[in-house]
Amino acid sequence: MNTLLTRTLALKTTLLATTLSATVYASDADLESLVEAAKKEGTVYSVGMPDSWANWKDTWADLKVNYGLQHQDTDMSSAQEIAKFEAEKKNATADIGDVGFAFARVAVKKGVTQPYKPSTWEEIPNWAKDKDGHWALAYTGTISFISNNNLVKNPPKSWDDLLEGDYKVSVGDVGVAAQANNAVLAAAFAQGGNESNLKPAIKFFSKLAKQGRLSFTDPGLANLEKGEVEVAILWDFNALNYRDQIDRDRFTVSIPQDGSVISGYTTIINKFAKNPNAAKLAREYIFSDQGQINLAEGYARPIRSSITLPKSIQDKLLPNSQYTNVHPVTDFKAWEKSARKLPRQWQENVLIHQQ
After folding, report:
1. Is 48 left (phi over 0), alpha (psi -120 to 50) or beta?
2. Is 211 exposed, middle or buried (0-12, 13-18, 19+ CB in 10 A)?
3. CA distance 334 to 158
4. Within a 10 A sphere around the Cβ of 348, how many other Cβ atoms?
5. What does the pLDDT read at residue 355?
6. Contacts for 246 with CB less than 8 Å, ≥ 6 apart
């Protein structure tokens, strides 16, 4: 029996009853039974949880070593994950996904999720979890800039710096990807807007587009390594990860000092999953001590504040002083509404200037 989970798998149902919702099936309350059921399934299929994102690879490796779970991922955006769950229904080819905060409630409303509360549920802040266990943020990220020092002489440290530069800026698939949507929200916070008012950010990116400085190049690891990205707007955990994978000295990563957004990602377990127990065990492990440390190894900040990170991991992260002007989402309904309108706004007010 593996002992890496924060609490022993021999915990009795009665002990866990206080932390598990009534919506969670009784058989799930016993972790030992969950492990055995997951082992019988033997495989977990994920979407949007690739090895390179927030160090998922270590968690998949641990699940294989400790429980014999095989794993396969198809990388896609938050919106695409939910659409896949909804389209496939009982013909599901995915068991679990990882979506941005704004998409969590969307998935629940569409009826494509099933609940599971890990045994560390009480350590997750209330703002970061669904009361019924359909979702819970495992880690947070803050929107940052990554600059190629070989191509950019003065790496931007603020949104105003970004607007005054002479380089192209990659922002990703706005309207589809949570990372790109949050880049817009971060700009809104910095430019005097908020969750219900993205106009300052739309105006900002419109100016970039009119300057011919908005790049359609995907700001992923491969394009950064090839030198095809000058400046990109990414979650800090992605930017730091890419920097260290390629060449630490070749890139500068910074949090925009005139304002940014801090948000997070949550797993969603497919209501129609073929391997539901393997998916629930994956969530259980993600919230364990080692699962949280794995995420931090990938530069994502764990949601459980009780976790003590090894010094080697702490040293890889940006100093806390860079995070003095970051804003969490506080008006979730307004942000959901704005996010739904964003694709059209982006097309009509930003992309139109690129043509």
Report:
1. left
2. middle
3. 25
4. 10
5. 59
6. 221, 224, 225
Place of tokens 């927030």: 54
pLDDT at 315: 86
C-alpha dihedral, 49 to 53 to 59 to 63, nearest 10°: 30
pLDDT of residue 29: 54
Cβ-contact 235, 171 below 8 angstroms: no
CA nearest to 47, candidates 125, 102, 107: 107
Pair of tokens at residue 45: 């299929």
Q: What pLDDT does 52 receive?
A: 86
Place of tokens 């259980």: 284
Please, how many CA atoms are within 13 Å of residue 149, restricted to the half-sphere of its CB?
10
pLDDT for 102 equals 82
- What is the C-alpha to C-alpha distance for residues 69 and 78, in angstroms, rounded to an integer? 24
Identify the segments of the chain with pLDDT beneath 70.
1-29, 355
Q: What is the pLDDT of residue 24?
A: 46
